[in-house]
Amino acid sequence: MKTAFVTGGSRGIGLAIVKELGQNGYQIALMATKTEEHYPESSAALKAAGITYLWIAGDVASEEDRRQALNQAVERFGRIDVLVNNAGVAPKVRADLLSMTQESYDHVMNTNTRANMFMTQAVARQMIAQEQQGAKRGTIINISSCSSEVSSINRGEYCVSKAGISMLTKLYADRLAPEGIFVYEIRPGVIRTDMTESVEEKYTDLIRQGAFPIARWGMPEDVAKAVRAFCSDDFCYTTGNYIDVDGGFHIRRL
Is the CB of residue 73 less than 8 Å from the CB of residue 56? Predict the structure, then answer.
């Protein structure tokens, strides 16, 4: 059985990915900031679905926590076949670009981009060291955002962090292709999660106004299904690519 390591897997998009992969034959190493007891609903959902998982508490922005999480996952399951870099944070306060603080920038970049780079580095080394199973040695999927391309001047640090993930996808795809490890990116748009609760009215109005060709909120499961597709062996002549899961928001229209 293959193993998927999913960061930020306790709720929202991450939890949907854990459930989707777990119900499609993967055993899951799930990394979250808090222990399982803090998320009783998520825990109950995973157990009810019969998913084999290991819940690991830790901060992806911490080098020591990343190292320990990877060691625990390999000790439990023996290998890592898929890495989904999903963990991410928004600015604690939405502030105009001219008011954004260095502390806010560092907080967002350390979790969204720096952690992504070095978690990928560590897991890629693990994948290279283990015996290949199937058509490829490993799959790495980065969950970025439409904000990697779309300007939001009241949360510039978030946009910069997601644009950085897009470049990391290209860099690691280039470096790891000779190793049989393929790297992809998924760019969610407006997805109904706790991160978008504070701006629900704004996005609902945009949907009503026709900003999205597919006129509805995106759901975490929409992203999870795209992850599952990239994890399959159906994209073995494809790497460094991204897919927009955004209801067509990326389409430029006159």
Answer: yes
What are 27's strand-pairing partners? 3
> What one-character-per-residue DSSP string does 102-140 give?
HHHHHHHHIIIIIHHHHHHHHHHHHHHHSPP-SS-SEEE
Q: Give the residue among 202, 205, 191, 105 at the shortest CA–CA distance from 155.
A: 105
Residue 49 corresponds to which tokens in the numbers above? Answer: 């679905």
Label residue 93 by pLDDT band (50, 70, 90): very high
Residues 6+ apart with CB under 8 A from 207: 190, 215, 216, 217
12: left (phi over 0), alpha (psi -120 to 50) or beta: left
pLDDT of res. 160? 98
DSSP code for 191: B
253 three-class SS:
coil
Q: pLDDT tens digit string along 170-218?
A: 999 999 999 999 999 999 999 998 777 777 888 899 899 999 999 999 9
For 228, half-sphere exposure in the C-beta direction (CA atoms, 13 angstrom radius) is 18
pTM: 0.95
For the chain, what is the mean pLDDT? 96
Both tokens of residue 222? 């929409």
For 216, counting Cβ atoms within 10 Å of its Cβ (0-12 exposed, 13-18 middle, 19+ buried), the class is exposed
Which are the catalytic amino acids?
Answer: 158
- 27-32 and 181-188 beta bridge pairing: unpaired
